[in-house]
Every structure is written in structure tokens, then in C-alpha cells.
Please model this.
Amino acid sequence: MSDFKNFMKSVKTSNSEVALLASRIGDVLAVNALGSSVFNSLSNSEKEKFVTKVSELTHSDMFLTELSNDIGLPTENESKDEFVDRAKKTMKGLLLKKLSK
Model:
């Protein structure tokens, strides 16, 4: 099994699919990072700017490398669902750390 960074780099999608996916990921991460009440209080242009920055961060080589290193490989007795849950928690924690700087 490859690490998360190599997996992300191997995914082949069209530009429109990437833009849509990045937008959706950015929305979800932004709401989780800020909290829904804070995010909803932003103007549309502020939301768009923040979502774009979050998306750029989460797709950067530096972020993917750190996330991949933090996640590591699945443990011997870890189910797929457990691994995904651990990866999501790791990503959220790393994102909050990066955004709080």
C-alpha cells in the first residue's frame, strides 16, 4: 500500500472535477475549522476566499507530506473504516494547527 501523499498524486481527474472536488472539500473543512456559526456569518466573498485558501493548503505538497507522515500506514488489525476515521481526525487536527498559526 502506498502512503496518502502518493495516493493523492496518483488520482487522475479532469480540471472541472478537481475544481468541484476542491470546492466541496474546502467548504467542509472550512466549516469544521471555523465552526458553522462563524463560517455562516462571513460574507460570500469572505467564504469563497477562505475556502480557496483552505483548498490550496490541503492540496499543497507540504501539507500532503506532513499529513501522510502523520497518518502512516494502516495498522495490522485496523479496519478500513477505522483507518479512514483516524485519517480524518488527523487531517482535521493538522488543518486546525495550520490555520491557527
